[in-house]
Amino acid sequence: MTVTKQDSDLPRDHDAALVAESFSNAVGAHLRLKAQIQADTRRGPERSAIGLISCLASNGSMRASALAEAAQADPSTVSRQVAALVSDGLVERRADPLDGRASVLALTDRGQQAHQQNSSARIEFYRLVLQGWDAAEVSGFAAQLARFAAGLERNRPAWSREDPKQDRPTFSGVK
Description:
There is one protein chain. The chain is mainly α. It is 64% helix and 6% strand. The protein has 7 helices and 2 strands. It has helices at residues 5-9, 13-40, 47-59, 64-70, 75-87, 109-129, 135-159; strands spanning 91-95, 103-107. It has a two-stranded antiparallel sheet with strand order 1-2. Helix 3 packs across helix 6 (109-129). The chain is globular and about 55 Å long. The protein starts with a helix and ends in a 16-residue tail after the last helix.
């Protein structure tokens, strides 16, 4: 078997399996944390809607379809969550400045405050998680995690069922 440069750049199966296991454990711990937070705090927007608030805080006003795309969520799910956020006074609908017949979604002052509170709580939590790490370990981990996330994003279309040109096994093992 001839090993190409591209093949030699790939991690060994054992190394990839270690990363897959560690990442799965980290995602599982994160999901359990989110579930616990949601169970402990029955007030405020549901956890998944906080992502929409974050998208609006980062990107500014946008149409619901653009918000669904930015959040990588189903438009009907986003529509339901936006309705709740509007009802809670965290998001408001405004006339689209480019097309007055359409509307854009924007954070209210209360929505901005909720975003700031969530961001502060998230930072404080991760400060606790990283307790005992030195600055070099934290910055190195952040850099590697960003690199890993970019690799996930870069390879997502190749593993998607939407890319018929790729002949790769699916995670379920069924093509």
